[in-house]
Amino acid sequence: MTRVALLWHMHQPFYQDLATGEHVMPWVRLHALKDYWGMVALLREFPSVRVTFNLVPSLLVQLEAFARDEARDRHLEIGLKPAATLSDEERTFCLEQFFHAHRPRMIDPYPRYAELLARRDLDRPVDGAPPRTDRFSVDDFRDLQVWHKLVWIDHEYWQHDPRIRSLVAKERRFTEEDKAVLRAVELELLRRVVPEYRDAVGRGQIEISTSPFYHAILPLLCDTDVYHRTHPYSRMPREPFRRPEDAAAQLNRAVALHQQLFGKRPVGLWPSEGSVSDAILPLVSKAGFRWMATDEAILARSLDRHLSREADGHVQQPELLYRSYSVGTDGQHVACGFRDHLLSDLIGFTYASWPADSAADDFVGRLAEAGRRYAARTGGESATIFVILDGENAWEHFEGQGRPFLRALYQRLASHPDLRTVTMGEACAPGGVSLPSVFPGSWINADFYIWIGHPDDHLAWSQLADARRALDAASGVPAHALARAWEEMLIAEGSDWFWWYGDDHSSNHDRTFDALFRKHVANIYQAIGVPVPAELASSNISTEPPPRDVHEPTGLITPTIDGRRTSYFEWLGAGGVETLHAGDAMHEVARHDTRLTSIAFGVDAEHLYLKVEGSRRFHELLADGFAVHVQFLAPDSRQLIVSGRDGKTTGSFVAASNTGRSPADAGVQSAAWDSVELRVPFGCVSATAGSVVSFVVAFVRGGVTLEQHPRHGPIEVAVPSGDGLGNRHWSV
C-alpha cells in the first residue's frame, strides 16, 4: 500500500505597519474568504482522506485580527465606504486596485464585473496614467465594491448560502444594504477559519504544522555565508548576517502561537521555502519538532546522487525519494520528508487548464505507478510519496476555485485500492534512513539565490545587519519600545521582502513590498530613539519589472506554413507570448534543459496561426518525443496535438477527455523544422465571426507537461467580423 502525504502550505507575509496599525495589502482577508476556510472545510465530504496543512504564524495573527474586526486595510475601508461619498482619489483607488483577480476565472465569467474592467481599460488616456473616474456613476462604483469582494467568496457559499446566491443573481445596481450583507458574510467566514481547522484536528483528519513565525529563511539567519556553498564567487552584503538566536526566536514564537490557537505544540515544520542546512538542525530539534520537509533536489545534493526522470516523468531512483529520512547526528536529528517536485508542480502549474476528472486521473495514476516502481526496486516495500505545495495561490486559476479538481482527487484517493493518504507526522514516523548531513538550500534550485543572490538583496541584507547591530547597542530604551523594535526586526527578517527584490520575480506590488520592508527597518531605529539612516528613504529596487506575458498583435497575417524562417515580414503584425520570465508569488523550477523560447500568434479572416520556437530546432525536438499541445478552451474544449516521427509532422485534434480522435481536422496545416507552425480554421473549434477563441500552449513529453504558456490563463482572440481585428483584441 503506497502512502501519500499531501501538505498544503498556507502563507501570507506580515502586511501590517506596526507604527500605523494599517495592513497595506488585502490578501490575508481575501484568501480567508475562499482558500483558508474552504480548503479544510471541503474535507468534511471525504472523512477517510488525511492531509497536512501548514499554517504560517504571520498569516494566523493577521487572520485572527481581521476575524475580531480589529484589523483594517485600505481596500476594506474604501470597499465599505458609501459609494456616494467616495472622494475622487478613492474612486481612482477603486479602479486601480479592485480588479486584482485572475481575469479568465474571476472577472470574465461575471458580465457586470467584466464590463466595469473593460470600461476602465477603454478610458485609460495613456499607458501608466490613472484611469478616468468621470465616466463611472455612483452605481458603477458600488457594483465594483461588491464584485471586488464577491468573487473571492468560497463557492460553497455561492451554492448554498441564500445571501450570496441573491447577490450573484442580482448582478448589478447593488445597494448599501447589500454591501452590509456581504460584510456580514465576510466576518462570518473569517471567524470560521481557525475553528474549522481545530475541528478537523479533533476528527483526526488533519495535522497542522508550522513555519518560522515571520517566514524567515533560517539558514540565512544563521549565517548568510552559507550561500557560498553553491555560489562561491558571488558578491555578498556589506557584512555577513549571523544570528542563529534570531532563527531560534522565529521557531519558538511559532510554537507558542500554535499552542495558543490549537491547544498543543506542533511536531512538524515546513521550513520557509523548504530552506534547510546543518546549522538549523539543532534549533529545530531543540524547539521540539519531530519532522520537517524539503525538496527532492536537496535530497539529491545531500546524497551526492542524481535523481533522474524517464520520459514519462517517473523518477528512475524511486527507492531514494519515496521514503523518510532521519537527518542529523549526536541526538539532534529530525525526521525529514523530501517532496516529489514534479508531482507537486503538476497541481501548482499544469492541471489548472485540464478537465478536473482528467487531471485527477492523471495524478492518481502517477502516484500508483510510482508506488509500484518503488515496490519493484525494494523487494515489495511500501512507498511514501510526499506532495507539498502552495495551498492558496493556484486555485484562482482553476475552474470553480479548484474545488472540482480537489473533489475528483479526494474521491479517487479515498477509493483507490493501492493508495492511502497519511499525515506528514505519520509519513515521517521514527525509523527513517539515516542522513547525517543535509545540503544547504531551498526548494528552488537547491540554493538561496532568490533571497540573497541579487544586488538588491545584498542591500536589504546590509540594512538588516546595520539595524540588528543598532538594536544590540540600544540602551536606556523603555521595555515596551525595545519589545516593539525586536518585533520589527523579526518581521523584517521574513523571506517575502527578498522574494520580490532582484530580477527573478516581479508583480504590480514590488514597490509596496519594498516600501514596507524599509518601513519595518526604519521602525526599529525609531523605536530605540536612533536616527534612521538616510539610505532607508530610497527604494532598494534597481531592476525594472519583466514585460507582460502577452503582446497584442497589430494586424492580420497570412504566413506560409513550412516551419522555416522564410521571411521576417510573414509574421510581422503577430502577437507574442513571453516564455522566460517569472512574475508572481509562485515559482516553478525548470525540469529540463530544453524549453520553449517564443510563441507567436495571429489571425486572418478564416484562420488562427501559431508559431512555436524552442531552444533546439523543432524537427529534432519532435523526433526526440517532445510535442506541442494547443488546448482550446472556447468555444469548444478540444486539444490539438503536434507530434512528429521519421521527419513527418502531424497536427490532429483529440477530444477533451482524450478518449478518441475527433474528425474535425479538415484544413489544419502543420509543419516543423526550425519552428512548429500551425494554421487552424476557425470552424475546427466551432468559432464564428465575432466569437472568442481561447487557448493555451503546452510543451509535452511522455504525457508530462513541461511548460504551459501563458502561465496562468488563456490567450483570447475574437474571430474577425469584417472590421479587421475587431473591437476585441487579445488578452490574458
What descriptive keywords fit this protein?
single chain; 732 residues; alpha/beta; 7-stranded beta/alpha barrel; immunoglobulin/albumin-binding domain-like; Immunoglobulin-like; six-stranded antiparallel sheet; 17% strand; globular; disordered C terminus
How would you describe the overall organization of this protein?
There is one protein chain. The chain is built from 25 helices and 22 strands. By secondary structure, it is of the alpha/beta class. It is globular and about 80 Å long. The two termini are 43 Å apart. Among the domains are: 206-435, Glycoside hydrolase 38, N terminal domain (7-stranded beta/alpha barrel), CATH 3.20.110.10; 454-537, immunoglobulin/albumin-binding domain-like (Up-down Bundle); 550-718, Immunoglobulin-like. The strands form four sheets. Strands 11-12-13-14-19-18 form a six-stranded antiparallel sheet. Helix content is 37%, strand content 17%.
